[in-house]
UniProtKB/TrEMBL annotation, chain A:
One of its GO terms (molecular function) is hydrolase activity, acting on carbon-nitrogen (but not peptide) bonds. Keywords: Signal. The keyword Signal applies. SUPFAM superfamilies: Composite domain of metallo-dependent hydrolases, Metallo-dependent hydrolases. The keyword Nucleotide-binding does not apply. Pfam families: Amidohydro_1. This is Imidazolonepropionase. Residues 256-388 form the Amidohydrolase-related domain. It comes from the Bacteria.
Automatic annotation (TrEMBL), chain B:
GO terms for molecular function: hydrolase activity, acting on carbon-nitrogen (but not peptide) bonds. SUPFAM superfamilies: Composite domain of metallo-dependent hydrolases, Metallo-dependent hydrolases. Residues 1-17 form the signal peptide. This is Imidazolonepropionase. PROSITE patterns: PROKAR_LIPOPROTEIN (PS51257). The keyword Signal applies. Gene3D superfamilies: Metal-dependent hydrolases, Urease, subunit C, domain 1. Residues 108-441 form the Amidohydrolase-related domain. The lineage of its organism: Bacteria, Pseudomonadati, Pseudomonadota, Alphaproteobacteria, Sphingomonadales.
Length: 427, 471
């Protein structure tokens, strides 16, 4: 009964304020690609990382959390997700990813649809995911709309940055969304950006195809104020996307998916375009993924490309927690002759600093460097290992509740049989 | 349909006739209806032509062994030769000239068995022309056989072998239909034909499905079933027909006369009622599984395994009492309403209740990491105090699926005399940092991470970008 009251109190309590916390005696992964260090300290103050490393002083008055040698890392970043906009994919009323019957596309802004109480937010927070790139899904246009960056905190203020990027489909999907061919997708894209420029200049031609709201939404894209995340898989399609960046020189292009990017790694590197890639896609699942291999990310990294992990068409509404396993698998590849694996630090960076850098927010989160948002996780083991779980999570310096609906179901059915009363009375 | 077995019987009959014409009158079917041979349909019209590839006697030493039935040997040895496991133990006698592999720091397990795969019937690339997993023209299609959809060139077979250590897999029809059709069990060895991959002597399964899929697909066409009660009604009516069909054939078998007209759908169902064909039942919710269990009792058949069964943990005691296995994911959840209550402790909770548990994939990617799925579930169990040893958890990947597929006498563990379906892992196979190093099927080395020539490349991938690459 007492536990019940405490739980109820926790539910209705206002979010705790960011406190000054020092986590000491940590096996510390900074998230910047470096190897973990033992005996490290992380200091959080005013919701930001004040310092992290070995030999860091604990400020007076800080709450000290002794990690007792446990792993401590930045909270993980879902580099491509649909967290917070879908409760159950198959229940359309709870699925705000796409809007096939809307007259708008590029103008759609995913931020107002984000529900911080989505089950997937709670569940992934409990597994150490603290920030997510949230993309709308295209339906009826190559432009899916404007994505957001969110935190996974247990409060009603989830959106870190609204209208953080525009999401566009090229390749097979783009072709299907624009009338039936890749040529149509490229023509649609060129026209849309031209209309955005016209709109910005106060011109509007009589034959304009885009609703004004869509044209307006593309102005920051063509001006380079808003990143453009482009889903593209095939080697030749990647080169076409890079060509568009040469044509629209201000574009802040980010490749998403990019299964065959390793086949054109030098060109990707030369373009300076970062990549949010599928980690373990190794099947020729479509004709635009014939060269799929789990070595894609390793080969891109070796070529000098900034590359993080995203989940593209891969349970992206719910399973961001799997990025830990994905990164661990990239380490395992290192033992296979002919494969391109990652060392531990580089693998961890693909789910922390690299996706943040890819969308231009590496200064805000994704590592424990001073000044970053204080998203911190204590783990009961190597965070990339299958048996490890998060034991404490801070977001913006606020310690988070980790109990999920699934935990409650588990506890109710710890023994299957009914007790003195039906299961419905057990909680 | 003219079966090979029937053809052989006919040839034998002709030979006898040729030798005996002088002595006896030709007999006709009507001359003695109670003693004339019955024209029973062939049970194996598409027989396996699988042949094990040659291997060499192989001894792995200094290796950690999980035997697949729950036993563990540290710094042990395993010998296999002529396609069979010969001996496992702390040390075993090996013949002169056996290939010796130092397994220090490595693990040996039986090859992983995936009881739920759609490789071949939903192959890569996933283009419409390849979509052969659901016969969505009727909710009741027990007459279709997944083996007739299997494309043996699916690149997914190679990934399951090289990244997953999968040596045996059951290919199921999809779950759009209440009765989806027969499954086929394959050895994970590329062949030119499905028959060349077919697991010799494995029983057929029948895929059934509960819940949202059938009622959505057919209800959406304003056709039965449109509800869960409709699902059960169509199921029960179909089983009742199968009982009637069985009576006709039993009578013919007993009394002779004209054989009844064959009904391929009913033949499959009678195979289930006779216990020859195993029910593999897609079902998510606890309450629906309970309904299916009662239906199976009503019509006198047994469910071998519930597949997906995300709510198995709610009725683990019932599943144990009814001796039904649960084939589960580690952590899939929430993609549709009936998967909403999935929890990551499903496997350990059901195991802990004493019921049979299996890790399955239902996915061309997941099949490459079934060992990792087991590891995640195992760890989540331990976190709530269910401390299952690693070697016991390996039964989820080995003997348990073998039992639920009716092949436990042939594979699924490293018991001497069984098929030498063996994986050498380059570390602890329940770690994310481990991959298969070598995979033997029937004692033949079919994958070697250290030898690019022992890496299969399907016809489809020949001449394509990435041909022969490490995947």
């Amino acid at each position: 009964m007492k536990a019940l009251l405490l739980a109820a109190a926790a539910l209705i309590a206002a979010p705790a304020a960011a406190e000054t916390v020092a986590i000491t005696n940590a096996r510390l992964a900074i998230g910047d690609g470096s190897a973990p260090i033992d005996g490290g300290t992380v200091v959080m103050r005013d919701g930001r990382i004040a310092a992290a490393g070995s030999g860091v002083a604990v400020p007076a008055g800080a709450r000290i959390v002794d990690a007792q040698g446990k792993w401590v890392s930045p909270g993980l970043v879902a580099g491509f997700s649909r967290l917070g906009i879908i409760e159950v994919d198959g229940v359309s009323q709870t699925n705000d990813a796409s809007a096939g019957r809307s007259p708008f596309n590029a103008a759609l802004d995913v931020a107002p649809a984000v529900n911080p109480r989505t089950s997937a937010i709670t569940l992934n927070r409990a597994e150490g995911i603290t920030r997510a790139v949230v993309a709308p899904e295209s339906a009826g246009s190559i432009f899916a709309g404007q994505g957001a960056v969110i935190d996974l905190g247990a409060d009603m203020d989830a959106v870190t940055k609204a209208r953080a990027f525009q999401f566009v489909e090229f390749g097979e999907s783009g072709a299907a969304q624009s009338g039936g061919s890749r040529a149509a997708a490229i023509a649609t894209f060129r026209n849309a950006l031209a209309e955005a420029r016209d709109y910005a200049a106060g011109r509007r031609h009589e034959d304009a195809l885009l609703p004004r709201a869509d044209a307006a939404a593309l102005v920051p894209v063509v001006n380079g104020q808003m990143p453009l995340l482009a889903h593209v898989e095939r080697g030749s399609d990647i080169l076409q996307a890079l060509a568009l960046k040469r044509e629209f020189t201000s574009l802040k292009l980010v490749l998403v998916g990019a299964t065959e990017a390793w086949t054109v790694a030098d060109q990707v590197k030369a373009s300076g375009v970062p990549v949010i890639a599928s980690a373990l896609a190794d099947l020729p699942a479509s004709f635009e993924m014939l060269a799929a291999t789990q070595s894609n990310i390793g080969r891109l990294k070796n070529a000098g490309v900034t590359v993080g992990i995203g989940m593209i068409n891969d349970d992206e509404a719910r399973q961001a927690r799997l990025i830990k396993q994905y990164a661990g698998n990239l380490v395992a590849l290192g033992k296979i002759p002919g494969a391109a694996g990652l060392d531990w630090g580089a693998a961890f960076a693909t789910i922390s600093s690299k996706p943040a850098e890819a969308i231009g927010m590496g200064g805000e989160f994704g590592s424990l460097k001073a000044g970053r948002r204080a998203d911190v996780v204590i783990w009961d083991g190597d965070p990339l290992e299958l048996a490890t779980s998060a034991v404490a999570v801070w977001i913006d310096g606020v310690e988070q509740p980790l109990r999920t609906r699934q935990d409650k179901l588990r506890d109710r059915y710890r023994t299957a049989g009914e007790g003195a009363l039906p299961k419905a009375y057990e909680r | 349909m003219f079966s090979k077995k029937f053809a052989i019987a006919l040839l034998a009959g002709l030979a006898t006739a040729a030798c005996t014409t002088a002595e006896s009158k030709p007999r006709t079917a009507s001359s003695s209806s109670s003693t004339a041979p019955r024209q029973m349909p062939s049970k194996d019209p598409f027989p396996s032509t699988y042949r094990a590839y040659p291997g060499v006697p192989t001894l792995v030493t200094n290796v950690t062994i999980y035997d697949g039935e729950g036993a563990r040997i540290d710094k042990g040895q395993i010998l296999f030769a002529d396609g069979k496991v010969v001996a496992i133990g702390q040390s075993v006698d090996a013949p002169q000239g056996a290939t010796v592999i130092d397994g220090s720091g490595k693990w040996v397990t039986p090859g992983i068995i995936d009881i739920h795969s759609h490789l071949g019937d939903y192959p890569s690339p996933a283009v419409q022309a390849h979509s052969d997993g659901n016969e969505v023209t009727s909710p009741v299609t027990p007459q279709v056989w997944a083996e007739h959809s299997v494309w043996p060139q699916d690149p997914g077979f190679s990934r399951a072998l090289t990244n997953g250590g999968v040596t045996t897999l059951q290919i199921l029809p999809g779950s759009a239909n209440l009765f989806g059709g027969r499954s086929v069990v394959l050895k994970n060895v590329y062949a030119r034909t499905m028959q060349g991959m077919k697991f010799p002597g494995a029983p057929y399964g029948l895929k059934m499905a509960c819940g949202e899929n059938p009622k959505r697909v057919y209800g959406g066409r304003n056709q039965a079933p449109g509800t869960r009660m409709g699902n059960m009604a169509v199921d029960r009516q179909t089983w009742a027909k199968a009982q009637e069909y069985r009576r006709k054939w039993d009578k013919y078998e007993k009394d002779g006369g004209d054989p009844p007209a064959r009904d391929l759908a009913m033949e499959t169902l009678v195979g289930v009622l006779k216990g020859d064909i195993l029910i593999q039942n897609h079902c998510y919710r606890a309450d629906e599984m309970a309904n299916v269990i009662d239906m199976a009792k009503e019509f006198g058949y047994k469910v071998s395994a519930f597949h997906h069964a995300v709510e198995a943990y709610k009725i683990a005691d019932v599943l144990k009492a009814n001796e039904i296995c649960s084939a589960l994911w580690a952590d899939w959840w929430g993609f549709k309403m009936e998967s909403y209550d999935a929890i990551t402790e499903n496997l350990p909770l059901v195991h802990n209740a004493g019921a049979c548990t299996i890790v399955h994939s239902d996915d061309a990617n997941g099949i490459q990491r079934l060992n990792q799925e087991a590891a995640k579930a195992l760890a989540d169990g331990r976190r709530i105090g269910i401390d299952i040893p690693d070697e016991i958890a390996w039964t989820w990947l080995a003997i348990n699926p073998a039992r639920a597929m009716g092949i436990a006498d042939k594979t699924g563990s490293l018991k001497p005399g069984k098929m030498a379906d063996v994986v050498l892992w380059n570390g602890n196979p329940l770690s994310v940092y481990t991959r298969p190093e070598k995979v033997w099927i029937d004692g033949a080395l079919m994958y070697d991470a250290l030898d690019p020539k022992r890496r299969p490349v399907s016809d489809f991938e020949l001449g394509q970008p990435g041909e022969g690459d490490v995947k």
